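Standup notes
- DV: blocked on the single-chain target, sequence here:
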Amino acid sequence: MKKQFITAIKISVSLGLIFLVFRQLDWQQIGWIVKKANPFYFAFALILFLISQIISVFRFNLFIRKVGVRINFKTNSQLYLLGMFYNFFLPGGVGGDAYKAFALSKAQNKSLKRVGRIVFVERFLGIIAIGFCLGILFLFLPTQLSYGWNLGAAILAFLGTLVILQILIRWLPISKRRVYIGFLYSITIQLLQILTIFFILKSFQIDGNAFVYFFMFLISSVLSVISFAGLGIREFVFFYGAEFFDFQADSSAIIALAFSMITAFVSFLGIIFLIKPIEMKKK
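- DV (later): unblocked, structure below
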């Protein structure tokens, strides 16, 4: 009941933020932006997002092998895609990560606690990578403050990343090599998704400082934990962030909507493996 209550809160946050943003959008302006969109760039954005999810599969495999789980790439990809479907389309008590941990522990007779812990570490590395990328973006972010503040924030992000990585290595039964490789995978995933945003910008022919859009995207990724599948919070950050940075708010919001559409499309493919059960073949 506690998990269902938290899920209900997240759905409420998403719906509330979607209502708040959507009622302020100029849908005629958005329709014009979509009409003139370049489908080639949008297709490339979709491909980059798909590649980022393939890298995520490799990262997931890196960590589940630590607890003795051995599955081939095809099975791993199917399980990962089904997890995405659970996360995006099934607002129940079982999230995609929880389902993957349960399915793997049951299929290969492994401790659910150990598998769940390793899945958490794998996801947590993604959050650390976002913080690291934010640190880099601080160096290119236009603000009304002196550049020293940007530099200080970047250094703080870098040092924070190193400290958290060392804590993971010291307190969890995971080798230093595995943590660093997982972190590099996570950085690659974030860079590919930043490039996804870049090509969405190119598709809609939206001008402006691209680094600001990248910054807003990463901030919305961190805050997505308080909403359901990131819906609402991403659009909220892009809409009001654009006002803060003196960008066109409608154009900014359509970027967030487009990314959500790409995520929804890829996640929906996981329904195949909800209908057709995955065979948990060992590698």
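- Follow-up: The radius of gyration is 19 Å.
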